[in-house]
Structures are given as C-alpha cells and as structure tokens.
Amino acid sequence: MANNRVKSTNDLELKDRLVAINRVTKVTKGGRTFSFAAIVVVGNEDGIVGWGLGKAGEVTTAIAKGVEAAKKNLIKVPVHKGTIPHEQLAKFGGAQVLIRPASHGTGVKAGGAMRAVLESVGITDVLAKSKGSSNPHNLVKATIAALSELRSPFDVAQNRGVAVEKVFRG
User: Fold this and answer.
1) Is the whole-model pTM more than 0.85?
2) Which of 63, 133, 146, 169 fits a disulfide with 95 by CB distance 3.0 to 4.6 angstroms?
3) Going by DSSP bridges, is the β-strand pair 31-43/48-56 parallel, antiparallel, or unpaired?
4) Can you tell me the distance from the alpha carbon of 76 to that of 17, in angstroms, rounded to the nearest whole number?
5) pLDDT tens-digit profile of 90-107?
C-alpha cells in the first residue's frame, strides 16, 4: 500500500462535517458532570479527507477540537470521474463497510457516517453498504480505511508497466 498521507494543510480549503455528538456523564460526589465527544470529518471535496475526535465540556469546543484533530489526520483518495476506481471492503472494530463504484448520476448511496466521509472526499457516485456495527466512530474509521486502501488506475498501470487503458476502461 502506498503512503497517501497529506503533508501540508496550509493551502487546502477544508470543509468540516459533524458526524456525531455523544454526551458523556461522569458521576461524582457533587453530582453528575456532563462532557461531550464530537466526531468530525473534514475534506476539500477533491480527494482529501480526514477525521478527528474532540472531547470537551462544551459542544462547540468539542467540535473545534475535532476539526483540529481531523486536520492532522488527512489522506489522499483517488477519485476517478466522481467515483472510486474499484470495489473495496474494510473493517474496523465491529463495523464493516463495502464501497463500490457507480455510474454517473447514481449519487451517494450511503447512510449516516459513511455519507459524511464520502461527500467530504468529493465522491458523487458510489454504492456503499454498512455491515455489522452502526457505531459512528467505527463506521468513520472503517470508511477511511477502505478509502485509504484504494489504488488509482495510474498507479496500478505504472506498477504493472502497462498502459492505463489496459488497466481501467473508462
């Protein structure tokens, strides 16, 4: 697998999407203390995406921390004509995701956490299936894992030493 981490975030126009907020309660001698955990996905809608988890006493602070964490965790994803180059299966914890390329006009057929990640990447046509756990934390991580394992047709052609047309029709 090629290293597809993004080195610099200075020149990127990243948009953030809130995937889930979880209220956590800590019971102390003085009563209940509430804090919040926010999972956030950022992307430039042109092949770059990252996720982050922020925890704080206030929702807005948790989201801001999640965005900062996501900017440190960016990957480059090969997007070909608005879809992915090939089918990919990935698993994280109890969540298993299957993403498949789709023809133009299909749209993003994915739910919840997967939709936020795929739209942040800039994928416009994809079929996605979530199997197992629906925990948003694990779904986001499994989706990012699947996207990070994708290989562009140009890389495959270069590794095989053949023309791109022989690897990928379209």
Assistant:
1) yes
2) 133
3) antiparallel
4) 18
5) 999 999 999 999 999 999
